[in-house]
Amino acid sequence: MRSASSFAPSDSFNRSFGLLVMAVCVAGAVIAQTRHAVIGWSVAAVVGALCMGALALWAPRKLTPLSKAWMGLGRLMGRVVNPLVFGLMFFVLITPVAWVMRLRGRDALKLRLDASARSYWVDRQPPGPRPESFKHQF
Question: TM spans, by residue (predicted)?
Fold first, then answer.
């Protein structure tokens, strides 16, 4: 993965970025008008959309600082949101399953110590591959 400082967007990336921002501005203007917002917001959104569209089509390199800033914001948000989402998924999905398994006495990994056991070796049925097959695998 590239670092944020080495990110160099291409013209096609900048063009796509500018057209996307233009579409979002137009959608914002339409939504503002349908909700009877102050007309100044709609006009500002349309002017912003026209500027972004013009830059995207005729001078996409001018959008490089803006697209770099946008990608940096995305990386920052990812560093914050990803741990939160995965932590929430772990505590909502995995932890209750582990609690239920412990309450029912299940030892799926066979980690419980048995003092009377001579060995913890598990015989495979059918037996695994021949040891010779592990040499020169490729």
Answer: 12-32, 38-59, 80-101
Give residue 132's identity as a one-letter amino acid code: E
Q: What is the 3-state secondary structure (H, E, C) of 71-127?
A: HHHHHHHHHHHHHHHHHHHHHHHHHHHHHHHHHCCCCCCCCCCCCCCCCCCCCCCCC
Rounded Cα distance between 96 and 65, Å, is 46
Going residue by residue through the chain (138 aa), what tens digit of pLDDT does each one get?
556 567 889 999 999 999 999 999 999 999 988 887 778 888 999 999 999 999 999 999 999 999 999 999 999 999 999 999 999 999 999 999 999 999 999 988 888 898 898 898 888 888 888 888 889 888
Q: Please check whether residue 134 lies inside any domain of the structure.
A: no
Q: How many CB atoms lie within 10 A of CB 16?
A: 16
Burial of 71 from C-beta contacts in 10 A (0-12 / 13-18 / 19+): middle
Q: How many domains does the structure of the chain reveal?
A: 1
Longest dimension (CA), the chain: 83
Contact 22, 46 (CB under 8 A): no
